[in-house]
Each structure stands twice: as structure tokens, then as C-alpha cells.
């Protein structure tokens, strides 16, 4: 914890804990019973729709486009989870990510779905984002998960610093 001297030009008011951020941007959205869909002809990396908002006070999540519009340049903590269709009875590799473009890269988590009735993969990263960036969740798999209804998916995005 850091303390700063609280004072004005003439008076000292003692010590204070400084605000970490001048403001906080936070969004929490999820999708249940949704079907991933292809955008911009990108058939390999379908976008995961989010049909429920838990928190989005600034209305930064664009529901029709299924992306979060970054309001301020800074560092953001991105958490996500993806649960493929329950009870498929198949093992397969798949991946998902949250990024400005739908494709493979260091922002993408590859994982393996075991032959279990339910499985959820979790994702977390800190990313430098620029004001106006559009972050969206997308998936990839050899086994056609996007042709099935997704059990659940969730995404939380919160600014942790405006110093980059």
C-alpha cells in the first residue's frame, strides 16, 4: 500500500491512500444456450454471442455485434470461460480467446475437452488495449462445436491501470 501526503498550498491534512484509477471500466456478460456464428466470412473462427449482461454501467458492450468497446487506453484484465455442449461423448481439441481479431495468437487458449459429460475451460490475461478496440470472444475446433448450442460462456473485462 502506498500513502501520499494530503495537503493544499497552505495546509497539511495528513496522509491518504491515492486512488488507483480515476475511473473504473468494467463489463460482465454471458451467453447460455447460444450458437456461435460466422462473421465477415471467417468460417474458422466463429464468434460466441453473449445474451446476458450482469454488469455494464457504461453500456460499452455492443450486444448486436457481440463486442466490448474499450473506452480508454490502458491495461485490462480479461477473464473468460467457455463450456462446450454437454454430453457430446467426444474428446476433441478446441480453443477460445478474447481479442480484437478472430484468429490464433498469444491471446488464444488451446485446450482439450475430455470425454466427460461437462467441461469448462477458463481463460485469463492482462492486455494493453487502445481506446476504440473491439474485444470479442471467439472459438475454434476441429469438431464442429459451433454447429451446436453452447452450454455457457462468460466474459469479464475490467480496466486495471491507465498507465501503460
Gist of the model:
Helices cover 0% and strands 49% of the residues. The protein is an all-beta fold and 164 residues long. Strand 1 (4-7) and strand 2 (12-16) form a beta hairpin.
Observed structural traits:
164 residues; five-stranded antiparallel β-sheet
Describe what you observe in this structure.
The chain is mostly beta strands. It has strands at residues 4-7, 12-16, 26-34, 52-55, 61-62, 67-69, 74-83, 92-99, 108-113, 121-129, 134-141, 150-161. The radius of gyration is 19 Å and the shape is globular.
User: What can be said about the biggest beta sheet?
Assistant: 5 strands, antiparallel
Rg, Cα atoms, Å: 19 Å
Overall mean pLDDT = 82
Structural class: mainly beta
Shape assignment = globular
Helix count? 0
- Name the helicity range: under 10%
Helix and strand arrangement:
Blueprint: E1 4-7, E2 12-16, E3 26-34, E4 52-55, E5 61-62, E6 67-69, E7 74-83, E8 92-99, E9 108-113, E10 121-129, E11 134-141, E12 150-161
Antiparallel strand pairs: 1-2, 3-4, 3-12, 5-6, 6-11, 7-10, 7-12, 8-9, 8-11
